[in-house]
Design goal:
This protein has about 675 residues and is α+β, with helices and mostly antiparallel strands. About 60% of the residues lie in helices and about 10% in strands.
Length: about 675
């Protein structure tokens, strides 16, 4: 016998009228946004790893000299404060031909220079004395392909050298503490390195941090989509249940409807992600923009996200029907819902105690452990939220002296889960705001702005290099004073190494010209500036700052969208109640004020709590890192709180016309 579930579901969906269609469109829109953001987060995490993999070939993996076919010396120089990676290669005589580096058609011969497209464009833009003269003179430059680059904006050069050239000599590979990750030399037989560049090695970790903090608000948004129109659906299905429909049929009808709406929205989000890939690739992060192929997650991930969002919306809708299946008469009569239990508070305290004990036990926690603790914290707060809302409703109801406040308190205590869903996104975003605003990775080191350093092998070479440096700078038209440093001189850019320091007068153009002029001076190493020394710390700070800003913006946007959708759905679900209140003489302003207070009361308490916890966690991190709270972080926290509150009010105000519309002609709409 053919099941009546599908035909009946389709019939009820078509006959639900304009109100039902609005709820379905809102649910599909939430599913589309959730699917789009999830795919974007997965793409960023995968692409960050792919970027790092594209830079491993530049870090030479040393092999025994007998097996080596070439010598590789990789170093970093700066132009316009941007890092420029230079890979010097020399074929060893009498050895088999070395393979071609990634992105090159062949191993570079002596005097050949290959540059990335971005470096080629910059070389044409800047005078040769500031950039091009750092490389050997050549009639034409080769181009490094995408296989050898992490980003189309990356500055990279590959230079072919003689085996006896100082640029690939042993002195060029001598390292001190500031060269780690920046300069290295080794005999090689290929380019299968495993260590990523210092400029891309931190990308995946920081992106994953942002993904973990953002995935919960996105999941909240997607799950809210499954609850849109819940009251309308409950009334309709309760009537069917009383008419003889079985609980299995009720659940099946809900699952089919929610899966259809959620699947359509998730698929629309996936299509939007695919269509916007070229535009998304232009968003800068780290070393620059992305290659479009890096952000493509592939069909398996695409299908998995669409299925996951559809399943989340379906499960969220089905879980709302427990009362319909067990007590349809209570739903039809709109009986009071079940109260939340104090076990939620006890579990929350237990989880917080476990997290505190784990973080206070000492020892370095692994990234997976930190992520697990963060997810556990989110889950505990999600469990506690409805209980707090329920208690707030009871307390406010006893103290209320205005009609709007009394109505808000009644809604909070009657439907604490629904009220919690309205503010949950912003409440959880408050933790992100508190953490990122207060935390600071401000590794303050010695500043040597305006200095250009040249490393030499010994003191005698330093004195000779100083004379060469003065002549080279004078010819280049750079005003600078040149001094020789020793092993006991730590108050300089060389930090106790033997070499020459040029104190350059002028702006960035003069510094770039000085670096170019001093390139032939010294032991084969490129001259370096303050950016070279502080690159590892500056890279981490910049990546965390970028991810924190993006996470804050997206989390507040998602929270506002979730609140707006839930507020609109609540208006549609409660239209009968609002209509009856209007028939009883309640002004529309009072109903609107009640909706605002229904949101503000739990938001002030819960968001304040999560923001405080996020700030406390950041303070603990600062304490472990040896840093303190800065005034700019506190100001940013205040700004984030203000923006979040305004976003929430804007989301509620967006459904005000809908409230006016559903309460127009209350005699007809109140049933």
């Amino acid at each position: 016998m053919r099941s009546p579930v599908l035909p009946l579901t389709w019939h009820l969906a078509r006959s639900s009228g304009r109100r039902g269609l609005q709820s379905q469109l809102l649910a599909a829109g939430a599913g589309a946004v959730g699917s789009f953001l999830l795919l974007l987060m997965i793409a960023a995490a995968l692409a960050a790893g792919a970027r790092a993999d594209h830079t491993t070939w530049r870090t030479p993996d040393a092999v025994p000299v007998k097996r080596a076919t070439a010598v590789q010396a990789t170093t970093t120089t700066y132009v316009r404060r941007e890092p420029l990676t230079v890979v010097n290669l020399a074929q060893l005589p009498g050895r088999p031909p070395a393979p071609a580096p990634p992105g090159l058609t062949g191993f570079p011969k002596q005097g050949e220079v290959y540059v990335s497209p971005a470096l080629a464009a910059l070389s044409h833009k800047l005078p040769a004395s500031q950039l091009a003269d750092r490389f050997p003179k050549t009639k034409s430059y080769g181009t490094i392909g995408a296989a050898g680059l992490a980003s189309p904006d990356e500055l990279v050069a590959v230079v072919g050298r003689e085996p006896g050239d100082t640029a690939v000599s042993k002195t060029a590979g001598e390292q001190s503490y500031y060269d780690e990750g920046m300069s290295e030399r080794a005999p090689v037989s290929g380019f299968s390195g495993t260590e990523a560049s210092v400029f891309t090695g931190f990308d995946r970790g920081t992106v994953l941090l942002g993904v973990v903090l953002l995935v919960v608000p996105v999941v909240v948004l997607a799950s809210a989509a499954g609850r849109l129109g819940a009251a309308r659906r409950e009334q309709r299905l309760a009537a069917l249940r009383l008419a003889g429909a079985t609980p299995r049929q009720i659940l099946a009808m809900t699952a089919v409807e929610a899966a259809g709406v959620g699947g359509a929205g998730a698929l629309a989000g996936a299509l939007a992600y695919t269509a916007l890939l070229p535009a998304l690739a232009e968003l800068p992060y780290g070393v620059g923009a992305w290659y479009t192929g890096q952000l493509w997650v592939g069909l398996p991930w695409l299908a998995a996200v669409v299925a996951a969002v559809t399943a989340l919306i379906t499960v969220s809708a089905v879980t709302m029907l427990r009362q319909v299946a067990t007590s349809p008469l209570g739903v039809a009569q709109q009986a009071n819902p079940r109260r939340t239990r104090a076990i939620r508070l006890l579990l929350f305290i237990a989880v917080l105690g476990y997290i505190w004990a784990t973080t206070s036990a000492g020892g370095q926690l692994k990234p997976r452990q930190l992520i697990a603790l963060l997810v556990l914290f989110y889950g505990a707060f999600w469990l506690l939220g409805p209980w707090v809302v329920d208690r707030l409703g009871r307390i406010v109801g006893r103290c209320a002296n205005r009609p709007a406040t009394l109505l808000a308190a009644r809604r909070l205590s009657d439907d604490p889960r629904g009220s919690w869903r309205t503010v949950s996104g912003l409440v959880l975003a408050g933790f992100v705001a508190g953490f990122f605003s207060v935390s600071t990775l401000d590794f303050v080191g010695p500043g040597h702005e305006g200095q250009v350093a040249v490393v030499t092998a010994n003191a005698a070479d330093a004195r000779h290099a100083a004379a060469e440096a003065r002549t080279a700078l004078r010819r280049a038209g750079v005003t600078a004073s040149v001094t020789v440093t020793s092993e006991d001189d730590y108050d300089s850019l060389l930090g106790g190494a033997t070499g020459v320091i040029a104190h350059v007068s002028g702006g960035q153009e003069s510094i770039d010209t000085a670096v170019t002029a001093l390139t032939p001076v010294g032991s084969g190493r490129y001259p370096f500036t303050q950016e070279y020394v502080s690159a590892p710390d500056d890279t981490v700070i910049a990546r965390v700052a970028t991810v924190s800003t993006a996470t804050l913006v997206l989390s507040f946007l998602v929270a506002a969208a979730s609140a707006g959708l839930t507020a609109a759905a609540n208006v549609l679900d409660r239209r009968r109640v609002y209509g009856l209140l209007r028939l009883a003489g309640t002004p529309l302003k009072v109903l609107d004020r009640a909706r605002v207070r229904e949101t503000v009361i739990p938001l002030a308490v819960l968001a304040g709590g999560t923001t405080t916890m996020g700030a406390f966690g950041a303070m603990q991190l600062n304490k472990a890192a040896g840093t303190t709270i800065n005034t700019s972080g506190a100001a940013q926290l205040v700004l984030c709180s203000a923006v979040g509150a305004l976003a929430m009010f804007a989301a509620i105000a967006g459904s005000r016309p809908l409230l006016r519309k559903v309460t127009a002609g209350p005699a007809q709409t109140a049933d």
